[in-house]
Amino acid sequence: MKVLNRIRNFVIISHVDHGKSTLADRMIELTNTVEKRKMREQVLDSMELERERGITIKMQPVRMEYEKDDQVYILNLIDTPGHIDFSYEVSRALKAVEGAILLVDSTQGVQAQTLTTLTAAKELGITIVPVLSKIDSPRARIEEVRGEVVTLLNCTEEEVLLCSGKTGEGVEELVAELIVRISPPKFEYEHGDDLRALIFDFNYSSHKGVVVYVRVFDGIVKKGDRLILRAADKSFTALEVGIFSPDAIPRETLSAGEIGYVVTGIKRAGIASVGDTLFHSGSLLPALAGYMNPIPVVWASVYPESQDDFSELKQSLERLKLSDSSLSFEEESAGALGRGFRCGFLGMLHLEIITERLKREFNLELTVTTPSITYEIEDHKGHRESIYSPVHFPDDGSVKRIFEPWVKLNIITPASYISSIMQILHEHEAIAGDSETFGDGRVKFNVEMPLRELMRNFFSRIKTVSSGFASLSYNIIGMREADVVRLDVLVAERVVHAFSRVVSKRRVQEEAEQIVDRLCKILPRQLFVTKIQARSMGRILSAKKLSALKKDVTGHLYGGDITRKRKLWEKQKKGKKKLKERGKINIPHDVFLKMLRAD
Description:
This protein is of the alpha+beta class. The chain has 5 domains: about 5-180, P-loop containing nucleotide triphosphate hydrolases (Rossmann fold, 3-Layer(aba) Sandwich), CATH 3.40.50; about 195-280, Beta Barrel (Elongation Factor Tu (Ef-tu), domain 3), CATH 2.40.30; about 300-370, Alpha-Beta Plaits (2-Layer Sandwich), CATH 3.30.70; about 400-480, Alpha-Beta Plaits; about 485-599, Elongation factor 4, C-terminal domain (Alpha-Beta Plaits). The chain is about 25% helix and about 35% strand. The model has no long low-confidence stretch (mean pLDDT about 80).
């Protein structure tokens, strides 16, 4: 019990790029968790993509020890992502802790994503410790932003702490204050060593199998214990238990209140799951409340460039699923593209990260279709069916009604940008709701709009017109009737399913012209004239011709009668005609990627 009173479990939550990982670095330095010679920036961001982009993608726990008043305290920190696409990672981390640092950038103030994660933390009854970061910046607005936080949390100014992750100023005071404000873990059941541990994440090792990340709520777990996953009803022997410091370090035991890992030895996918409870085999204790399954927001089909790589793609997705439980996929087949997988993602950034990881970590060349969302189709008999892919979307007029998901957005912006933002909202079929003043010269307002329009470069446009000062977060609010149609793209009079998309009927002409223009610029020329067309509602809406590659078949001739050259030109003409009739256009992999990025 004495050890339990010296444990503090907490997370850092904030908007993206507010300095979570930098603050975590300073805490690790302060507690000497990592030797100085081994320290580096973003020490908890182990993934190459995280370090390259400067964002946190995957939550990462770390155990630190700090001495205060002649007592050594155990600080278990879980560093969480800040982007809205990875809010599911944050929600899982929140259930494993008793406290949260609410980090707010003093140069930017409270942002929309801050409100979303704060609401989730409050619902779980977690202690909130408000902190202003980047106080060393010349652009810091400490008093103004402190006022925003005081209003938001209904706290006093003294409760809002100040720090700089860059210089380390205020970090030691923050760590000392965490020990005072955050409560130590509590037992729910007085059952001695009888184990109850929540799985909040897991990973896969080719040597050790599935490694589950656990928060122990009751009892003790040690190497060699016979354990059971309650939801999966799977027994195994703990091959190793340990802590994160931040590398995995084996320990004799993990006790109540601690955060660590258990090596299961299980090498099959689909057995371990986040939210499951770990017990000693034969235990009769009730399971802990788990997590809701994440709901995919964006769907895209992923095909191997060579069908010989299909099995490897399947294995790669299964491996990624073991480290990213929010990824979902199912096998599908589509004509010219062959066999592939229909994958569900939590957003456009999530899609981009997964496809990039498949390319880098597994050396796969992929074709990725245009992202889409889930539509519900109601036929004339009243039956409803979910459609995940534009390829299976019905022709215009063949169904009674179409429904699409809508989202509710929170937008926070300086008042001077409201008129520009309103113009964008109109273009994206959004409905603006109530607004209120938020802090010094800023406005917070609610907006409802189709998820389809949110995906159409909405984030980038809002950031552009607001010079980067506006922020937004969103959540799904349900299905509403939609006025949309399928737009197909034909190359050499053949439909390329990867380019098919569902668009608003009022914008279908504009979309058709844009996609034809774009494809005409990036598609390599063939040996014959290539038609590029966009078709919807039974007619061609836009078309262009890509000129043929020119080969000088008479270049080796000199002198002689003109008829010699005419014979060769005629032969070339017939060859091109035959090639056009028989030939199949080979669209390079980078064309699909360029079209995806352009969207």
